[in-house]
Amino acid sequence: MQTFLKATTAQTTRSPKDKCASGFSIEKKSKLTPWVEKYRPKWVDEVAFQEEAIAVLKKSLEGADLPNLLFYGPPGTGKTSTIIAAARELYGLELYKQRVLELNASDERGIQVIREKVKNFAQLTVAGTRPDGKPCPPFKIVILDEADSMTAPAQAALRRTMEKESRTTRFCLICNYISRIIEPLTSRCSKFRFKPLADQVQEERLLEICEKEKLKYTKEVVPTKMINSLIQVCFQGRFEKLEFAVRSMVDEGYAATQILSQLHDCIVEQDLSDKHKSVITEKMAVVDKCLCDGADEYLQLLSLCSIISAAGTPEQLKV
Length: 319
Fold this sequence. Notes:
Blueprint: H1 2-12, H2 16-30, H3 35-38, H4 51-62, E1 69-72, H5 79-99, E2 100-104, H6 111-122, E3 140-145, H7 152-164, E4 169-175, H8 183-186, E5 190-193, H9 199-212, H10 224-236, H11 239-251, H12 256-269, H13 274-292, H14 297-309, H15 314-317
Parallel strand pairs: 1-4, 1-5, 2-3, 3-4
Helix pairs in contact: 4-5, 6-7, 10-11, 10-14, 11-14, 12-13, 13-14
């Protein structure tokens, strides 16, 4: 028994040097922040390409008042970042966690969440001053991300909560598809559509991050020769060559979204009927959505090219 206890003590006892080394590694790991969070806009002015929503938010922040908001638009356009930046300006870093409730409605989308978490948080009263002495609005903010995933009963319960707690709470609903939000909710919110980010805006932001992180980078696009050869292989209809061409482009390191964008421009210029172009571009839209959702690049491009290869046979396009 004593031998066992000694062995256990020897394993659990660490030298001061080991403890320091362990503490250093833990501290080092805690400082590692994903770039998505590190370079997320901290203030409303830093949000890019959404002038309408930013202009209204600035006026609301100046008057320390905020309506219920509904942000909708494609993923990655800054909807969540915008409301978080606005809340930080209203409350400061000290009160942010106390005054803001963030929920992802796709994970917590039932009526029970509305009755418990949201309702209990909304009923709390708050003061109108910050620890630094600056005034702040006497209301809280509930952020419901992916609100279009909420069930119909949960949306109905949220409507009643919005009515009862209008003096103490403001709601910000964030969704991709506004058509999935019930009309009683949309009528109680100021609606803002977030536009897809222009390529130039994305490029400027990426280059800025590269410079801050001291990364080496090159501005590169898929060579026109490769795009044209891929189109020619598609029209030849030989699957073996098509598979090899797609695999080669992916293995070269070109992003599928980049290939897709240049393929779109090339297809528009091709001598094809409007019907064929519409079928191909519709497939491109589907592939673009799948890529955004994390689908396999090679399989998606191969699927698109098989549709392009059928452009000469209208019967196959109907499938």
